[in-house]
Predict the structure.
Amino acid sequence: MSESENLSRMTLIQHLEELRSRLVKVLLALAVTFAVCWVFVERIANFLARPIYAVTDEPLVFLGVTDVFILYVKVAALVGLFIASPIVLYQFWRFVSPGLYRRERFYALPFVFLGSLFFLAGGAFAYYVAFPFAVDFLIGMGAAFDPQITVDRYFGFLLLVILGLGLMFELPIVIFFLAQIGVVTPRFLIRHFRWAVLIIFVMAAVITPTPDVVNLCIFALPTILLYLLGVGAAALVPRKSPDTADEAG
C-alpha cells in the first residue's frame, strides 16, 4: 500500500448528510419493492403457508379484524426486503467506501452480489429446510390435541425464522468485511472459534424456540460452516502491516 495514497476525508456533517442520502435511497427502494409485493401479497402468503398445510389439514384462523391486514403488511415488507437486498447492500457499501483505499473499493461488486446471494440462500434454507422441520416437530408434540393455529402466530414464527437465517447467512460477508478493514484476522477467528460456536447456538435457540436438539442443529450447524467459510475468506485478505494484524489478533 503506497503511503502517499490519501483516503477521502469528510466532516461529521458530511457523514450525516451522506448517511441521510443513503437511508432515503434505501427507503425508496423498499417502498417500491413493498408496493410490488403488495400486488401479489395474497399469493405470496399462500405460498408461505404451504409448510403448515403439509402437516395438518386444519386451516389457519384469525381472531382480530386487522390480523390479516397486518399479516399482509409484514409479508410484503419481508419479501420486499429480500428483493431490495442488492440495493440495500450497495448503498451500505457506498456509505463506507470513502473510508477505504482505492483497491479495496473494487470489492463493491462481489460484496453486493455475494451478500445478496447469501441473504437469499438463508431465506430459502429457512423456508425449504429449517422451518418445515421445526413445524413438523412442534405439530407432532400436540398430536393429542386439535390444532387451531392463528395466522399471526404462524407467520410471526415463519418470518422470524426466514429473516433470522437470512441475516445469519451473511456471516461470511461480515467476517470478510471486518478482515478487510483490519478488525479481525484468521488467527483471531480460529482462536475464538469456541466462543463463536456458543454465540451461534444461542442465536439459533432464539430464532427457533423448539427444545429439539435436531432442529437446533439444523439452524446452528450451517452457520458454523459459514463461519469457517468466513475464516477462509478472511485469509484471502492481504495483511496491511504486522502492527495492524497484531492489534486485531
Observations:
- The longest helix spans residues 108-141.
- Residues 1-7, 242-249 have pLDDT under 50 and may be disordered.
- The two ends are 20 Å apart (CA to CA).
